[in-house]
Amino acid sequence: MARDLRFAWEEQPQQLLDERQQKVRESLHTALINWARTAGEGSDYVDNLPLQCLHPVGHWFEIPNLLRNGVLADLLRQRPGLQTLLLHNVDAVGVDVDAALLGWHLRTGATMSVEVIGRQIDDRGGGLARVDGRLRLVEGLALPNEADEFKLSYYNSNTFWLDVDRLLAVFDLSRADLGDATRVEEAIRAVGARMPTYITLKDVKKRWGYGQEDVFPVAQFEKLWGDMTALSDVETRYVVVPRRRGQNLKDVAQLDGWLRDGSAAHVEALCDWGA
Questions:
Q1: Fewer CB within 10 Å, N or C, the chain?
Q2: Domain locations in the chain as residue ranges
Q3: Where are the alpha helices (DSSP H) in the chain?
Q4: Beta pairing, strands 112-118 & 236-240
Q5: Quick one: which of 20, 27, 18, 156 has its CA closest to 9?
C-alpha cells in the first residue's frame, strides 16, 4: 500500500545522503509509490516471470504441509514405530541425528525440544527469552529494534526435535485422522489462527531487455515455527548445543569464520561425503 511505503521511507529513520543523491532517492520513492497505486494497492504481484513472483510464506507451514500432502501419513504407514521428527533449517549445515540429543528429548517427554547456541555478532534473528514468565523463542521480527536481538544470550538455531503424537494432539489430531483431508485442513487453520503473521517489505527484480532490470517493493507475509513455543499447550524444552552444530549460514561473509572455528571440519567428519 502507498501508506506502507511512505511509512517505511518517510517516517522511519533513514540515512541522509548528499543533496543530489537525496533528490534522486526521493524521486525514486515517489515513482514507486505511484507504481503501487497504478498496479493496484494490496493486489497480488504477478507482473513478472512466475518463479520470480513466488515467495516463501514462512517455515511454520513446513510441518502442516506434511499433514496436508499425505507425506507424514505415508511415513507412519511405512514405519508405524516412528516417534520423533527432526526439523531444522537447511542452512544449519552442522545438524545431524545426534543419539544423545534424541535420548535427552525422549526422556523429557516434551512435545518439542529446541536447540539454541550462544549468540555471536553475526547471528541475526530471534533467540531465547522469558516473556510474561514463560521461556520461549522470540523472533527478531517481533522485537522493537535490532539492538534488542543482542540482549538475548542464546540464538535460535531453528532446530527442533518433535514428538509426533504430542504434536498431532496440539492440532487436535491423531494418526488415524491424517487420512481425513477436511479435518486436517480445519485443524491447521485453527492452529494457524493462533500464530502471529509477520509482514515485511521485500524488493523484487523484473528483468527485461539485455541485462536491464526494475526493482519493485512488495509485501511478504510469513508465519514462523519458533512461535509455537509461545503456545501454552506445547510443552517445550531447550538445550544449548555447540556452535558448530547450530550456526546458521545466511551470508557468504560468514564462511571464513565458519572455516576457522572448526565448524567446516566438523561437517566433513559427520560422514563420508564421497566424490
A1: C
A2: 1-43, 59-196+226-248
A3: 2-6, 19-39, 50-53, 62-68, 71-78, 99-108, 164-170, 181-192, 243-246, 255-260, 263-268
A4: parallel
A5: 27
- What confidence tier does 248 reach under pLDDT thresholds 50, 70, 90? confident
Q: How many CA atoms lie within 13 Å of 225's alpha carbon, on the beta-carbon side?
A: 23
Write out pLDDT tens, residues 201-240.
888 888 777 778 888 888 888 899 999 999 999 999 999 9
Give the separation between CA 143 and CA 126, rounded to whole angstroms: 8
For residues 119 and 157, the answer to whether their CB atoms sit within 8 Å is no
129 or 45: which leads in pLDDT: 129
User: Look-up: residue for cell 531465547?
Assistant: 128
* Sequence-distant (≥ 6) Cβ neighbours of residue 142 within 8 angstroms: 126, 196, 198
- Answer whether 110's CB lies under 8 Å from 101's CB: no
The pTM score is 0.84
Architecture of domain 59-196+226-248: Alpha-Beta Complex (3.90)
How far apart, in whole angstroms, are the C-alpha atoms of residue 65 and residue 62? 5
What is the three-class DSSP state of 246? helix
CA distance 261 to 268: 13
Q: Which three cell numbers stand for residue 78?
A: 511405512
CA–CA separation, 212 and 219 (whole Å): 23
| pLDDT in the model for residue 43 | 86
Q: Nearest 5°: phi and psi at 172?
A: 60, 40
